[in-house]
């Protein structure tokens, strides 16, 4: 892959440790993902054989401290997400579901016993987690969820359904959010519990090298201590979503950069009318526009990372990156495909795959519309959700 010009010397804004993390993940993607991703996508296969290697790479729960977690900075996690998504959104999504959603929920809201039981194995890749919030009829409005957990003696009994739940069919532990008589609570549900069933959703036109599932919960009986003790109300799952949204703000830059690099390399070698396609003014305009948007997106993501490491990151600021960077990434992937001409629909080239994946990324963890309203409420002081 051709080196992408760094127009603003972005690397100078990073520390040696941050560059080392980025370069290590980039090398992993180059060696272990790029040669096979087109086949995995075509065959709709998530490469589970990479899970131990991702654990060894130190990207599972990498931003969490203790319990066997790597304890890296927010910026380092963001850079890793960017490199993973340059390979494929499905790979970054796996790391996000495992670390930013499932592990983050346990790390933030779990008991000490729950943390000790699950987090070291999840960081080591021997236990996979999933995060069950979205329902068939409850996506952008999780307050309307109908999954319910009732007390029955000392036990909890869960009934309901979840949809578009990443990794559920290969997970050993599920973080399930449910209504109770006391409001929304989070529950740790071992996936071998009777009444728990996860079914992969197929066929898909996007995120094909990834796993999303329907979950059915039928009289799932759990012990009294199965709930996350400090998770009460929707603020708890929303905090986990913000962890994932932060990673998305970085990750989509990787998809955009890979699309741009593919188009740039192609335009320099593809000849039409006795000259490289890159020598035409319209092509150069496309390349410049893409490069400018990537540079801006990187600066936004880095600013958020610095704020997060300083403990000052606000939810509306995450929406800036999730909305703006994802919107830019989709436009770049689509424009990159045009430079490839007819060859752009071939799986040999990445932009069309990235564009298809990004349609999912722009939808999950808050649609464009939801993040627009988050920012609108912050700007005006008026909530327009209801």
In brief:
By secondary structure, this protein is of the alpha+beta class. It is about 50% helix and about 15% strand.
Would you mind describing this structure in some detail?
This protein is an alpha+beta fold and about 375 residues long. The chain folds into three domains: about 10-125, Acyl-CoA dehydrogenase/oxidase, N-terminal domain (Butyryl-Coa Dehydrogenase, subunit A, domain 1, Orthogonal Bundle); about 130-235, Beta Barrel (Butyryl-CoA Dehydrogenase, subunit A, domain 2); about 235-380, Up-down Bundle (Butyryl-CoA Dehydrogenase, subunit A, domain 3). The protein is built from eleven helices and ten strands. It has helices spanning about 15-30, 35-45, 50-55, 75-85, 90-110, 110-125, 235-270, 280-310, 315-340, 350-360, 370-380; strands at about 130, 150, 155-165, 175-180, 185-190, 195-200, 210-220, 225-230, 270, 275. It has a four-stranded mixed beta sheet with strand order 1-4-5-8. Strand 4 (about 175-180) and strand 5 form a beta hairpin. The N and C termini lie far apart (about 45 Å).
Helix content: 40-55%
Number of β-strand runs: 10
Pairing-aware structural class of the strands and helices? alpha+beta
Question: CATH H level of the largest domain: which superfamily?
Answer: Butyryl-CoA Dehydrogenase, subunit A, domain 3
Largest sheet: 4 strands, mixed
**What is the CATH top level name of the largest domain?**
Mainly Alpha
Mean pLDDT: 97
Organism: Microbacterium terregens
Keywords: FAD, Flavoprotein, Oxidoreductase, Transit peptide
Pfam families: Acyl-CoA_dh_1, Acyl-CoA_dh_M, Acyl-CoA_dh_N
Domain Acyl-CoA dehydrogenase/oxidase N-terminal: 15-125
């Amino acid at each position: 892959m051709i080196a992408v010009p760094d127009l603003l010397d972005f690397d100078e804004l990073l520390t040696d440790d941050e560059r080392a993390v980025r370069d290590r993940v980039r090398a992993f993607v180059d060696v272990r993902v790029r040669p096979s991703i087109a086949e995995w996508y075509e065959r709709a296969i998530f490469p589970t054989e990479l899970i131990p290697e991702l654990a060894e790479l130190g990207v599972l729960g990498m931003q969490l401290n203790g319990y066997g977690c790597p304890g890296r900075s927010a910026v380092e996690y963001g850079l890793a997400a960017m490199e993973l998504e340059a390979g494929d959104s499905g790979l970054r999504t796996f790391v996000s579901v495992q670390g930013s959603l499932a592990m983050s929920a346990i790390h933030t809201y779990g008991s000490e016993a729950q943390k000790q039981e699950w987090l070291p194995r999840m960081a080591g890749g021997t236990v996979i987690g999933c995060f069950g919030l979205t329902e068939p009829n409850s996506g952008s409005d999780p307050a309307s969820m109908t999954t319910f957990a009732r007390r029955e003696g000392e036990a909890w009994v869960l009934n309901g359904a979840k949809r578009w739940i990443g990794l559920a069919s290969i997970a050993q532990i599920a973080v399930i959010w449910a209504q109770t008589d006391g409001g929304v609570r989070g529950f740790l549900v071992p996936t071998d519990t009777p009444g728990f069933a996860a079914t992969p959703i197929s066929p898909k036109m996007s995120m094909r090298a990834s796993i999303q599932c329907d979950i059915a919960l039928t009289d799932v009986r759990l012990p009294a201590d199965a709930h996350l003790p400090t998770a009460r109300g929707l603020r708890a799952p929303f905090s986990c979503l913000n962890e994932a949204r932060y990673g998305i703000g970085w990750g989509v830059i990787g998809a955009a950069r890979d699309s741009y690099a593919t188009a740039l390399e192609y335009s320099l070698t593809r000849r039409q009318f006795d000259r490289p396609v890159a020598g035409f003014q319209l092509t150069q305009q496309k390349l410049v526009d893409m490069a400018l948007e990537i540079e801006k997106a990187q600066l936004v993501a880095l600013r958020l990372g610095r704020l997060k490491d300083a403990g000052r990151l606000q939810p509306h600021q995450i929406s800036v990156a999730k909305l703006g960077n994802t919107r830019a990434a989709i436009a770049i992937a689509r424009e990159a495909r045009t430079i490839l001409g007819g060859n752009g629909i071939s799986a040999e080239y990445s932009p069309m795959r990235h564009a298809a994946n990004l349609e999912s990324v722009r939808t999950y963890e808050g649609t464009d519309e939801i993040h627009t309203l988050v920012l609108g409420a912050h700007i005006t002081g008026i909530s327009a959700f209801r």
